[in-house]
Amino acid sequence: MVYIAKTQRGAFVYVLLLMILLISRNDYSRGLLYIQITFCLINLGSIFIKYKFEINEDSLTYEILFFKLPLYKKSIYPNQIIQIKFKRMGWYTKGAIIQVKKGFNIRIANFAPGDVFKDLINFANKKGISYSKTKDYCILEK
Question: Does the pLDDT at position 99 exceed 80?
Answer without folding.
Answer: yes
